[in-house]
UniProtKB/TrEMBL annotation, chains A, B:
Pfam families tied to this protein: 4HBT_3, 4HBT_3C
Source taxon at top rank: Bacteria
Protein name in the entry: Acyl-coenzyme A thioesterase PaaI-like protein
Domain Acyl-CoA thioesterase-like C-terminal: start-end pairs: 126-261
InterPro entries (alphabetical): ACOT8-like_C, Acyl-CoA_hotdog, HotDog_dom_sf, Sec_Metab_Biosynth-Assoc, TesB_ACOT8-like_N
Upper classification of the organism: Bacteria, Bacillati, Actinomycetota, Actinomycetes, Streptosporangiales
Annotated Acyl-CoA thioesterase-like N-terminal HotDog domain residues: 25-105
C-alpha cells in the first residue's frame, strides 16, 4: 500500500457510511487539493458499487475541508448491469463539503477502440521539460511533494513573467512514490496542474466550483501526460479542460472544471 | 409564453417540490429528449435558487420517463453570494428518473471577456446548410417539429451512407416557434444534435448516461450554432462535446456527455 493509497483509504462503517481521514500532505496552502478529495470520495463509491470503475464523476466543491477525520455518505440511486449511479457526500464536522454524482461501470482490461482522436499537443520528452521550484515550507504547499511533474516550458513561462496569453498548462505526471496509475491517481491528475489561467496572465487562488471527469480507459504503467487548456475567461469564471494520456498513447481521462478567477 | 415555455413549466408546490408535466411533443421515438428534461428540471432549480442562471448542470439519466405529470424535488446544498448548489431529482410514478447537481449564479447582461478562443469550425450560412427530412409520423419523433436545424452538409453524410468517419455533427439551431434563446433553450440545444457517432459510421439509439453543461453567457437573439464532436469511441462508450455559439459570435454553452453506443 502506497502513501497515496493510505491517504485515500475509506473504511466501510455500514452500507451508506465510510470513515476517511483527510491527509495534511495534499494541501495547496491551506485548502486540500480537489483531486485528492475526489480520490477519497471515489474510494467509498467504488467500494459500495457492484461495478469496478468510476467512469463519470461530477463534484461540487461546497466548502474547502481541513485535514482530519471525515465521512463519505453514499447513496445508490440505481444499479444496472452496465452502470450504477451513486450520490456521494463528503461530510466533515457535520457539514457537507463535497457533493458528487458518480457513474460506475466495469471497463475491460483490453480496450476495444472504434475511433480515437489524437493528442492536440505533442509534448517534449520529460528530460526536455522543467520542474517547478520546490515551494517554500511556509507556503503550506504540501501537495507538490506527492507528485513528480515535468512541465512543457512555454506553459510555465508565467513563472518568470512571460505568460503565453492563453489558458494552458501541460506536464508529464507521476506519483513521487512509485505507483502504477489507477483511476484514483487519475482523479488526482485531472486537478494537479496549476490553474490554466496563470498562463493567460492571471494570478491568485482559483477555486474550483465544480469538476466533471470521465475515466475512458485503465492507464498503463509509466508517466501520464496532462494536457490542459480552456476556452473562455469571462465575468470572473473560467473553464479548464484536461486530457490525460497514458504511456501507451491512449486517452485515459477527460475533465472539465468551472472555476472562479482569483482575486490575488 | 411560448409552447416551449409552457412545456417546461414548473409549478411550486412547496420549498422543495415542483409539479411539472412532461410533454409528448419532445419525444425521440419513445423516450423524451434529455435536453428537454434538463430544461424542465432547471426551471424548478432556478425558481428555488437565490441566483438567476444555471451556470453548471450535471444530469444522470437513470431511466427514460414517459410523458405525463411528474415532480422535481430540489434540495439546496449551499447558497453563497457568488453561487448556489442544488441537488435535484425528477420523479415520476414514485421513481427517480433524472438526478442532477446544478450550480446557479447570476451572469451579467454585458459580458466582460478576459480571453476567448474562437470556434473550431466555420459554419456555412444557414441557407447553404441542409435540413433533415421530416421524420415519419409512425417514428414517434415529435421533437424535430419543435426546432429548426440546418446541418453542415458533410456531418450528415451518414444519411446517404457517407459518414465522415469521425464523430461530429454541426448545425444552426433555433426554436420553430419564434423565441429568443435563453438558458432553458440552451439546455435543449446541447442535446439536440443527432449522436455524433452516426458520423463515425455507427447507428442505433445512443442513450446518454450523463451530461454536464456550462452556461457561459446569456445568448443574443437569433440563430445558435451547435458544434459537436467527440474524442473516443471505445468499449461501448463515447463522449460527445457540444459548443453553442450565439449570433453575436460568443461561446454561450459547453457540454460533454458520456453515452452508450447503440446496438441497433
Amino acid at each position: 500500500m502506497t502513501k497515496f493509497d493510505e491517504a485515500t483509504q475509506a473504511i466501510r462503517v455500514d452500507e451508506t457510511t465510510y470513515d476517511v481521514c483527510l491527509d495534511p500532505g495534499y494541501s495547496i496552502g491551506g485548502p486540500l487539493n480537489g483531486g485528492y478529495l475526489m480520490a477519497v470520495l471515489l474510494r467509498a463509491v467504488v467500494d459500495a458499487s457492484p461495478h469496478e470503475h468510476p467512469v463519470s464523476t461530477t463534484t461540487q466543491f461546497l466548502k474547502a475541508p481541513t485535514p482530519g477525520p471525515a465521512r463519505v455518505i453514499v447513496q445508490q440511486l440505481k444499479a444496472g448491469r452496465t452502470a450504477a449511479f451513486t450520490r456521494a457526500t463528503l461530510v466533515k464536522d457535520d457539514i457537507a463539503h463535497l457533493e458528487a454524482l458518480v457513474t460506475t461501470a466495469t471497463l475491460p482490461a483490453e480496450q476495444d477502440v472504434v475511433y480515437t482522436g489524437g493528442p492536440e499537443h505533442l509534448m517534449p520528452p520529460p528530460d526536455d521539460c522543467v520542474r517547478l521550484p520546490d515551494p517554500k515550507p511556509e507556503s503550506g504547499m504540501t501537495l507538490n511533494a506527492q507528485m513528480e511533474m515535468r512541465f512543457d516550458p512555454p506553459t510555465i513561462g508565467w513563472l518568470k513573467g512571460e505568460p503565453t496569453g492563453r489558458p494552458e498548462a501541460r506536464a508529464h505526471f507521476r506519483m513521487a512514490e512509485p505507483q502504477d496509475p489507477d483511476p484514483f491517481v487519475l482523479a488526482l491528475a485531472v486537478d494537479a496542474l496549476p490553474p490554466v489561467v496563470f498562463s493567460a496572465g492571471l494570478r491568485g487562488w482559483a477555486p474550483t466550483v465544480d469538476l466533471t471527469w470521465h475515466l475512458r480507459a485503465l492507464p498503463a504503467p509509466g508517466w501520464l501526460t496532462l494536457l490542459g487548456g480552456g476556452r473562455l475567461i469571462a465575468d470572473g469564471w473560467f473553464d479548464e479542460e484536461v486530457e490525460v494520456w497514458d504511456s501507451a498513447g491512449r486517452l485515459v481521462a477527460q475533465s472539465r472544471q468551472l472555476a472562479r478567477v482569483g482575486r490575488g
